[in-house]
Design a protein that fits this description.
The chain has 654 residues and is mainly β. 1% of the residues lie in helices and 33% in strands. β37 and β38 form a beta hairpin. The N and C termini lie far apart (64 Å).
């Protein structure tokens, strides 16, 4: 008897494209096909992943601009295909542009005596027009120096195209800083070259850069982009005389209603954004970057926004925001305020990694004198705002807003540290990992209305820190704050707030929390509801809590509190296990329903109730938390990136 083995292919063949991906000098007619007979194809050209709700492919499509075509093939009774994609570059040439202090003025049809074309990384040779050399002023990238009120080439519009690369030479270490906005307080200037929009100081920012494509982002970078490892390596852009922001991203000019680009697929790299104005000065910029919520696919790398009159960053995006190595320091109102007060909020992925968001709600000295040059700090009662990160009270539309802060510091902000209480809407989440939070005047971390996740973090509930002298600051940095003592610990003297949406599992795992306030962690129903629905689950495991005496309340801080009840800890499906609780006020350790509790001193390296700053929370020799934890799915490393053994230590650090 004979036999045979048959392999039945149940997956639809991945779509292919003809002509294939590549660079073409003109528009292409593209055919999409699948080797599976009878398959139906859906496609997108806007950077989103195709689904059966995308455009149905019925005939060859015309690709006339640089874009990525993605396609999905489906057939009843078979598994959908993998996504096929092809990147087409039309007109195909990516141009490099350069700015350097020894370059020259910009040549244009308006200015035929202009010295340089901006397309060569070279100094102006000393004579001649339209030479192969760099521009000597960053503003020549969007202005040719003629008097202008905005909106038309060649006088006012980007000389670069989408997908081009701009390199700006000169760093803080070199003593170089490029002005953005008006040249003087009198306006755009009295003689050539004129800079900024005449009669409109607010809109005289770097206008929205032209959008790139998924395959070729527009890139604007400082000259040390390949090794931007220190603050002084960055290229500095300073806005002035009331400019709305140093850089606009997809934001229309408010008075002229001109939007030069939506600024999708744009990278900013190795830049320092600031102004040259101390408190009350006139040569200021309101924000470092102002985003439109329509913008998507933005990468920020090695950006420092500091000393701005209002916000370091203002606004959010509609997906694929990646900010890496970010410092938002000493901005007068807030750090990153995503609320444009226009009824919109962020959507899609929003990732912030390796960050420091500190001293916002304070003004930076100019010129800088002190090691911590933050002064004239104001709180809510004195006209300030002060959140390190804050959001709008608006639900995000589907697919929601997925915010993740990882590997960072948030400290000494004059209201909350990371305030994500109002991130909500289907699919939304707020994740905080490997974060050190301390000294913020409100809550250190605040998450509500979205799925909250806090893991591998060190939190110090010392919300009164800025009531004390802090070494390195100006002597009177907190004089306005001291006149309004109610602003200290204004958020119920609570270190962390988490509000749980029904039908979710919130995570508080592998954290170390110290508090000298009233409450360590407050848990409440979503939107401050009056009762739990019974479906709000909480995994509270592997956490260290140490409470210190609070003189205002006459007892040590309590580790967990709710205005309703602590029921989510014991709902079926929740996990309340392997936690270390020490000096928890009236808290009984172990509590009823708690498993594998450690109720003794955890013996961490430093267990000091610090007025300001933070402690070394590494377990000391002989610490009972070592090996007393439980392995948590997905948490294979600790706060420092050290691999966790099994069983791990309790707390943020092995």
């Amino acid at each position: 008897m004979g036999s045979a083995a048959y392999v039945i292919n149940t997956t639809v063949a991945t779509p292919t494209f003809s002509p294939g991906a590549g660079s073409y000098s003109s528009a292409q007619t593209v055919t999409i096909s699948s080797a599976t007979s009878g398959a139906t194809i859906y496609y997108t050209t806007n950077g989103t992943t195709p689904t059966t709700g995308s455009t149905l492919y019925s005939s060859p499509i015309t690709v006339s601009v640089s874009e990525t075509v993605e396609a999905l093939a489906v057939k009843t009774g078979m598994t959908n295909s993998a996504i096929g994609s092809a990147i087409y570059t039309i007109g195909g040439t990516v141009h490099n542009w350069y700015v350097r202090t020894d370059g020259g003025t910009r040549y244009s049809t308006n200015i035929t005596t202009g010295q340089c074309n901006g397309m060569f990384d070279a100094a102006y040779p000393g004579s001649g027009a339209n030479q192969n050399c760099a521009f000597n002023d960053v503003r020549f990238l969007w202005q040719d120096g003629t008097q202008n009120s905005g909106g038309a080439n060649p006088g006012y519009n980007w000389v670069i195209a989408g997908g081009d690369i701009v390199t700006i030479r000169g760093s803080i270490a070199d003593g170089v800083s490029y002005r953005v906005g008006w040249q003087t307080a009198a306006g755009c200037g009295s003689a050539y070259p004129y800079f900024g929009l005449c009669g409109d100081s607010e809109d005289s920012a770097m206008p929205s850069p032209p959008s790139g494509t998924a395959g070729q982002h527009t890139i604007i970078r400082g000259g040390n982009y390949a090794s931007c490892t220190s603050q002084t390596a960055r290229t500095q852009l300073h806005g002035g005389y009331g400019v709305t922001a140093v850089i606009l991203m997809g934001t229309p000019l408010s008075y002229t209603s001109v939007n030069l680009s939506n600024s999708d697929y744009v990278d900013l790299d190795c830049l320092d954004l600031t102004d040259f104005s101390g408190p009350g000065g006139s040569d200021y910029a309101l924000s470092g970057i102002k985003f439109s919520t329509l913008v998507h696919d933005v990468n920020l790398n090695d950006i420092r926004a500091h000393g701005l009159a209002d916000n370091g960053f203002y606004g959010s995006t509609s997906g694929n925001m990646n900010a890496t190595d970010i410092q938002i320091m000493g901005n007068g109102s807030s750090g990153w305020n995503t609320d444009l007060s226009d009824g919109n909020t962020g959507t899609g992925a929003f990732n912030v990694t390796n960050y420091n968001i500190s001293w916002n709600g304070c003004n930076e000295e100019y010129p800088i004198v002190d090691p911590l040059p933050y002064t004239n700090c104001t709180g809510q009662s004195s006209g300030g705002y002060g959140d390190g990160f804050g959001t709008a009270t608006v639900d995000s539309p589907a697919p929601g807003w997925q915010v993740h802060f990882d590997q960072g510091i948030v400290s000494y902000n004059t209201q909350d540290g990371l305030d994500a209480k109002h991130i909500r809407g289907p699919g939304s989440s707020m994740t905080v990992t490997r974060t050190l939070a301390y000294g913020n005047m409100g809550q250190q971390l605040k998450v509500g209305g979205a799925l909250p996740i806090i893991q591998n973090s060190v939190i110090m509930g010392n919300c009164a820190a800025m009531s004390a002298p802090i070494p390195g600051t100006p002597s009177s940095y907190n004089s306005v704050l001291l006149a309004n003592p109610g602003d200290f610990c204004r958020a119920g003297d609570t270190a962390i707030l988490m509000e749980f949406p029904p039908g979710s599992t919130s995570l508080f795992e592998d954290n170390t929390l110290y508090s000298d306030g009233y409450i360590g962690l407050e848990i409440e129903p979503w939107d401050a509801g009056p009762a739990w629905a019974g479906t709000e689950l909480l995994d509270y495991e592997n956490n260290v809590f140490i409470g210190f005496f609070n003189s205002g309340h006459g007892l040590n801080a309590t580790p967990i509190y709710s205005n309703v009840s602590l029921a989510p800890l014991t709902f079926t499906g929740s996990v309340w296990s392997n936690n270390s609780t020490f000096n928890g006020g009236s808290w009984t350790c172990p509590m009823s329903g708690e498993a594998h509790a450690l109720c003794a001193d955890p013996l961490l390296t430093d267990e000091t109730d610090r007025t300001y700053g933070f402690d070394n929370v590494t377990p000391a020799s002989g610490s009972p938390v070592v090996g007393a934890g439980i392995a948590v799915t997905g948490l294979t490393t600790d706060y420092n990136g050290t691999t966790r053994p099994n069983p791990p230590a309790i707390g943020a650090i092995q």
